[in-house]
Design a protein that fits this description.
Elements: H1 2-18, H2 20-27, H3 29-34, H4 38-47, H5 52-55, H6 63-73, H7 91-95, H8 97-113, H9 115-131, H10 144-160, H11 162-170, H12 172-192, H13 196-225, H14 229-247, H15 252-262, H16 269-284
Helix pairs in contact: 4-6, 8-9, 8-11, 8-12, 9-10, 9-11, 10-11, 10-14, 10-15, 11-13, 11-14, 12-13, 13-14, 14-15, 14-16, 15-16
Length: 294
């Protein structure tokens, strides 16, 4: 028995003693060849389930070190991929702030000029703003979460009045800025991290700060629109977390479940949905793969 076990173990040692990284490079050839820097490979490996502990089997201390070797050994042809500029990852989002002002402006204008149309206009522009940055999300049924969000905002406006919908529309602009700041900060910390756990420890406080800033801004938007804060703020936070998760490629299943829970006609439903989605966001958005360049 012992002899057969040792014989079975010997081929494994010989394969590992050869070139364990070569097989990994072949398996993830497309990822390694199109990556613009080792960080992209590290994020991709993490998305495929390779952790710092797994990297030790390839004779590396962490995934970042393994990614550096894969990047160095990947053929790139005559024209290697150009490295990105020094602009932060969230720079395009900051430049798009003018577009993020449109939902609040349209909803507020409709409330002033044609109050009867304020609710429908606010619902439409709020959901449209949610769809725009959500195209990178993964999973089946790409627009299920957006349809649930439309149903949620419409149902909330029907129950609590147009002021609530206007308040949600006004919160789109600060949500856009908070999401852009979080994306840029996380990408910056990804570049300075040397291990996946190190990056997670750096990313979580950023997310908490973004959520805190947005919650305060959403409360101000609700007060400006004349909406009830206990109703408007949890809904706004739920939509903000939905935007973050979809934009960073999270699967739509937990997002859809949270939005569906918020549709339950119970006062605490939206609070429970936002709290549950926040826990999921802390786990999902502290992964390096959530911040890889598209």
């Amino acid at each position: 028995m012992a002899g057969s076990g040792e014989a079975a173990a010997k081929p494994v040692r010989r394969r590992a003693g050869g070139d364990p990284v070569k097989a990994l490079l072949h398996r993830h050839r497309e990822l390694c060849e199109r990556a613009v820097d080792p960080l992209e490979i590290a994020a991709g490996l993490e998305a495929h389930g390779i952790t710092d502990r797994t990297a030790a089997r390839f004779r590396h201390r962490d995934v970042f070190s393994l990614a550096e070797e894969l990047y160095a050994r990947s053929p790139r042809g005559e024209h290697p991929a150009a490295r990105p500029g020094r602009a932060p990852a969230g720079a395009p989002a900051f430049r798009g702030f003018g577009c993020a002002l449109l939902p609040g402006a349209l909803a507020f204008g409709a409330a002033a000029v044609a109050p009867a149309w304020a609710g429908p206009v606010a619902v439409a522009v709020t959901v449209a703003a949610l769809v725009w940055p959500g195209r990178a999300a993964g999973g089946r049924f790409p627009y299920a979460a957006h349809l649930l969000a439309a149903a949620l905002v419409g149902w909330a406006a029907h129950r609590h009045g147009a002021a609530l919908a206007v308040g949600l529309a006004l919160a789109v602009a600060p949500g856009h800025l908070a999401a852009a700041a979080f994306a840029a900060g996380a990408r910056s910390r990804l570049g300075g991290s040397r291990a996946l756990e190190d990056f997670a420890d750096r990313a979580r406080p950023l997310l908490v700060a973004a959520v805190t800033v947005f919650t305060a801004a959403a409360a101000g938007a609700a007060a400006l629109a004349g909406a009830a804060l206990p109703v408007a703020v949890p809904l706004a936070l739920l939509l903000f977390l939905t935007r973050l998760l979809l934009r960073h490629g999270a699967h739509r299943g937990p997002v859809g479940a949270a939005l569906a829970l918020a549709l339950v006609p119970v006062p605490a439903a939206a609070i429970a949905a936002a709290a549950g989605l926040l826990v999921h966001a802390v786990l999902a958005l502290s992964r390096a793969s959530a911040h890889a360049r598209p």
